[in-house]
């Protein structure tokens, strides 16, 4: 069923409204957040999953050399007598590349399971473009908070920040649709317990991604219909600005 201005319509009814076999612009089906309805609501999720798996295979093939080039850390030497590297040295791409980077098999399995479980429903509810923005900014938000708080030489990698962003967005979406929130809250609670009790977990990435994802999702699904795009653009732009400001502040501290 497709959301209409009043109630819901079946796809055939919407297509039949134009007489040409295509829905008129006014009746074109939209997602809850105002995005276009896609034939395959899992396409972006599949692409992101494939990128993570491909980079994981590349890491297994090339070893530490590729990890040193792509993982997130503030400022350190990757070799004993090598140059000082890191985000503070201008390598801001590490905030992005580390989101798709995994070293251990259990790490990528857990994250990709979360992506496959949470991704398709959100992609269908938000639309592809908004889902991509949510995923990337959640991951960048987690990376920026890690960069801001963690020790400069502490390495961080993985899609966990983005996955926690999907957790936050799912909770917001379920509340908006008035679904039973207990399953997602229990699952989120279990993951937060692991976050703060297991060693070698960058809790900053999890918390940063969770907050970013929840805030962006709230802006997308609660924006007034008449000003929806403006509110959504402002939310994404504001989140990106916060991420940049955190990175600028930390870079000034380290340099």
Task: Describe the SSE topology.
Elements: E1 2-3, E2 8-9, H1 11-16, H2 43-62, H3 64-70, E3 76-77, E4 84-85, H4 93-97, H5 105-126, H6 128-149, H7 160-176, H8 182-197, H9 203-222, H10 228-254
Antiparallel strand pairs: 1-2, 3-4
Domain Peptidase S54 rhomboid: 90-221
Protein name: Rhomboid family intramembrane serine protease
Family: Belongs to the peptidase S54 family.
Instruction: Let me know the largest β-sheet.
Output: 2 strands, antiparallel
Question: How much strand?
Answer: under 5%
Structural class, by secondary structure, is mainly alpha
Overall mean pLDDT: 87
Number of spatially distinct domains: 1
* End-to-end distance: 55 Å
Radius of gyration: 20 Å
Quickly count the helices: 10
Give the SSE order as H and E letters.
EEHHHEEHHHHHHH
- Helical percentage: 55-70%
CATH class: Mainly Alpha
- Cross-sheet strand order for the largest sheet: 1-2
Classify the fold: give the CATH topology. Rhomboid-like fold
Q: In the CATH hierarchy, what is the architecture at level 2?
A: Up-down Bundle
Low-confidence stretches: 16-26
Tally of DSSP β-strands: 4
Q: Describe the oligomeric state of these chains in a short phrase.
A: single chain
Domain Peptidase S54 rhomboid: 90-221
Family: Belongs to the peptidase S54 family.
Protein name: Rhomboid family intramembrane serine protease
Main location: membrane
